[in-house]
Design goal:
This protein is of the alpha/beta class and 368 residues long. Helices cover 42% and strands 14% of the residues.
Length: 368
C-alpha cells in the first residue's frame, strides 16, 4: 500500500522570517540526527576462504540500513547538505535523478522532515524499488534510459520550485570523508581486531562515485597502505575514463543491466585520481558472482554486490599466486529481494542473453 508523505503545515520558506526558517531547519536536522542515533552501525561480515589460507574476505552489509541499501548513507548526507546550506525549507519539493535505491532512501528522509519527493528513474528500474519509493511517499517520473535522468530531473525542479538534490554532482562533497562515521571510517574501526586489520584492498562500485571518493580520500587522510579497486560494469564509461581521461561520454544508451552502478557519462562526483585500480566486469560475471555469494551466505544479495565480488575473486587469486596474506573488504550493497523478478528469474536472464551459470560455479568454488 502506498503511503502519503506528511507535508509540512508551515508556510513556504520564502514567506517565513529568517528566525522561523532557521528554527525549521534546526528541527529538520534534529529529526535526521535522531533517526541516525536510533540506527546501529551495519555489520562487517567475515567470509572464510578455506582454499586460500591467510586471505580473508569481509563484506560491509549495507542492506541492514532502514531503507535497505548503501544509498541510505548518501541520501542522509545529501539532504543534510541541502539543509545546512539553507537550500530547502518547509514545503520545498525534493527531486533527484536515480536508478532507484538512492530514491528509496531520499523518499524516506524527505518524509521524515515533511517534504514531498520526486524520483526521476529510467524505465526498467526494478519494480520492487519503484514500490519502495512510493511506500515512503515519493512520486516517480520515468525516462527512457539512464543517460537522460539528470537533465529530466531539472524539469520538475523548475516546475515545482523544488530543490534538485543532484546526487551525481553532490555525492562526493556532501559526505565528510575525514571521519564522522562515514563508511570508510567504520570499516577501519570494525577491522581493528582482525588478523589483518588494515585491508590490502577495499573494493566498491561506482554509480555517483561518492563512495569511491569517500574511501579513497579517507585512506590517504588516515595514512593507510590500503589500495582501492573500483569494480565497474563492462559497458560503463568510468573504467574507460580511468584509463583515458579524454573519454567522458558513451551516449545515452543503456550501459549495463546492473542497477545502481555504471554510467554512460562521467559524473562530477567520480574522482579517478583517488582510485588505484579499476576492473571492468561483464554482466554475466556480476550475476554469476551474485548467485554464488548468495549460495555461500544463505541469503540473496543484489547485482552490484556481484560486481564487487567478481573483482574480489580476481584479487584473491592474485594475492594467492603471489603468496600474499591479507584481507579484502567489499560492500554488500543491498538485498537481492529487490531483484526477484530480474536477476533471480532465470527466464528474465535468458531473455536478456545473460549466461551466468559458469561464473556462478567458478566463484562459488573459490568462495567455498
Amino acid at each position: 500500500m502506498t503511503q502519503t508523505a506528511p507535508h509540512s503545515s508551515l508556510p513556504p520558506a520564502e514567506t517565513l522570517s529568517p528566525e522561523a526558517l532557521r528554527a525549521w531547519t534546526l528541527e529538520a536536522v534534529r529529526r535526521i540526527d535522531a533517526d541516525f542515533t536510533r540506527s546501529a552501525e551495519t555489520h562487517l561480515v567475515r567470509v572464510e576462504l578455506p582454499r586460500f589460507p591467510g586471505i580473508t574476505l569481509y563484506l560491509k552489509d549495507e542492506s541492514s540500513h532502514p531503507t535497505g541499501s548503501l544509498k541510505h548513507r548518501l541520501a542522509r548526507s545529501l539532504i543534510l547538505y541541502a539543509l545546512c546550506n539553507q537550500q530547502i525549507g518547509p514545503g520545498t519539493p525534493l527531486i533527484d535523478a536515480t536508478s532507484g535505491s538512492t530514491a528509496v532512501s531520499e523518499a524516506y528522509f524527505a518524509r521524515l522532515i515533511g517534504l514531498p519527493f520526486i524520483a526521476v528513474v529510467p524505465h526498467g528500474t526494478s519494480p520492487a524499488k519503484i514500490e519502495a519509493i512510493r511506500f515512503h511517499g515519493g512520486d516517480v517520473h520515468f525516462v527512457q534510459n539512464a543517460g537522460e535522468v539528470t537533465d529530466a530531473a531539472r524539469v520538475p525542479a523548475l516546475e515545482t520550485g523544488g530543490h534538485f538534490l543532484d546526487q551525481f554532482t553532490n555525492a562526493e562533497r556532501a559526505t565528510d570523508w575525514r571521519g564522522n562515521n562515514n563508511i570508510a571510517d567504520t570499516i577501519f574501526r570494525q577491522m581493528r581486531n582482525e588478523e589483518h586489520p588494515v585491508p590490502t584492498w577495499i573494493v566498491c562500485g561506482a554509480g555517483t562515485g561518492g563512495t569511491s571518493a569517500t574511501i579513497g580520500r579517507y585512506i590517504r587522510y588516515a595514512r593507510h597502505g590500503t589500495r582501492l579497486c573500483v569494480a565497474d560494469p563492462q559497458g560503463s564509461v568510468f573504467h574507460r575514463h580511468f584509463a583515458d581521461r579524454s573519454i567522458r561520454d558513451l551516449g545515452c544508451g543503456k550501459c549495463s543491466c546492473i542497477e545502481g552502478i555504471g554510467r554512460p557519462r562521467v559524473e562530477p562526483s567520480f574522482m579517478p585520481q583517488v582510485v588505484d585500480r579499476m576492473m571492468a566486469i561483464p554482466d554475466a560475471g556480476s550475476i554469476g558472482a551474485m548467485r554464488a555469494l548468495s549460495r555461500r551466505l544463505g541469503r540473496r544479495v543484489g547485482g552490484s554486490t556481484g560486481t564487487n565480488i567478481h573483482a574480489c575473486a580476481a584479487l584473491i587469486g592474485e594475492m594467492a599466486a603471489a603468496g600474499q596474506a591479507g584481507s579484502i573488504v567489499s560492500i554488500l550493497c543491498d538485498s537481492g529481494e529487490r531483484y526477484a523478478g530480474t536477476y533471480y528469474d532465470d527466464a528474465w536472464l535468458d531473455a536478456n542473453g545473460i549466461a551466468w551459470q559458469a561464473e556462478d560455479e567458478r566463484i562459488y568454488a573459490l568462495l567455498s
